Amino acid sequence: MRGAERSHDVVVARCGGLRLGVPLEAVHKVVAAPLLTPLPDAPARVAGLANLHGAPLVVLDISGNALPAGRPRLEARLMVVETAQRRCGLLCDRVEGTLRLPEDAWRALDDLVPGAGYLAGSPDGEDLVVLRDPDGWLSEGDEQHLREALERHRAGGAGEAGA
């Protein structure tokens, strides 16, 4: 057994051209991407709302593709993730599975782009994996903007997501 080498398990997904690693402990489940309902005045990274077992779920698209709300591509997946603010969904082109990434393979990207997370070489020989803390997917300003959009949605009595 090796010394004190630390590693982290991540769920790897393709989001646009990005190969993203999400900490396994933050991932609740992965489901087929459902029909999305638009959320007017939400931040650009919010793709819409989904109906997940009768409850509205904020769905994020961090790929930069900003797809319109509606029916995602057939092969698209929704990774349901716990953040400090809420449970949310991450729209993914596909989910590849889990990887164990040794901590010494991580390289901080914050020196280049604040809040960008880490870059890790992948032991499976595939592309590099960008590791992002789900709590950083939206800025503080975007979080406030999202809270306001959700409040307007609730107050307006708009139809349930996916209805």
UniProtKB/TrEMBL annotation:
SUPFAM superfamilies: CheW-like. This is CheW protein. It comes from Ancylobacter novellus (strain ATCC 8093 / DSM 506 / JCM 20403 / CCM 1077 / IAM 12100 / NBRC 12443 / NCIMB 10456) (Starkeya novella). It holds the Pfam family CheW. It comes from the Bacteria. InterPro entries: CheW, CheW-like_dom_sf, CheW-lke_dom. Residues 7-143 form the CheW-like domain. GO terms for cellular component: cytosol. GO terms for biological process: chemotaxis; signal transduction. The lineage of its organism: Bacteria, Pseudomonadati, Pseudomonadota, Alphaproteobacteria, Hyphomicrobiales.
